[in-house]
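I'll show one example:
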Amino acid sequence: IPTFDNYRLLRERAIPSVLAQTYQRFEIVVVGDAAPAEAREAVESFGDARLRYSNLPYRGPYPAEARSRWYVAGVPPYNEAVRLARGSWIAPLDDDDAFRPDHIERLLHTAQHDRLELVYGTVLRRDPDGSTQVLGRFPPEQAQFGLQSVLYHAGIAEIFELELTDWLFDLPYDWGLAQRMLRTGVRMRMLDDISVDYYPSL
């Protein structure tokens, strides 16, 4: 979980959704993007040894234009969290989103059973006006693939990092990652079930 100043929802939504998983063999690695002290306090407030927190010394660097910045915001802390992770599988989550309770269990079972390197579910987009929309297609398409719905093997995490330069190509970082994985033949599948609640920040 990369984080900056959204420590309230990190504490109230994101971390509790992981702790409530039906599959309980996990660690939660939260990395701050030069985050304020409240982010560390939010993580430590759970008193759970499975939570680890690290904070980068500086934020970014990110482009100045708002949409371009949104495309790649959180890339450095995300990559650092993946480097710090000790498990065999990576389950990304944004600090304002929430896993459904069986997110990890179902994706992990599918990946292991079908010998896949990446599995993802559909996403329920929850807009501020109360409207909702289910997102998810296979094969992945832009705006129909979200990194927070993914579980992937740590072995390919060593090859595929998120890229700060994706904004130069008008790409959100998760779609840039999906394109690189598709081009190189990563074995993937989508489960046609909602596994994540997504609260858009732009």
Notes: The radius of gyration is 16 Å. The chain has seven helices and nine strands.
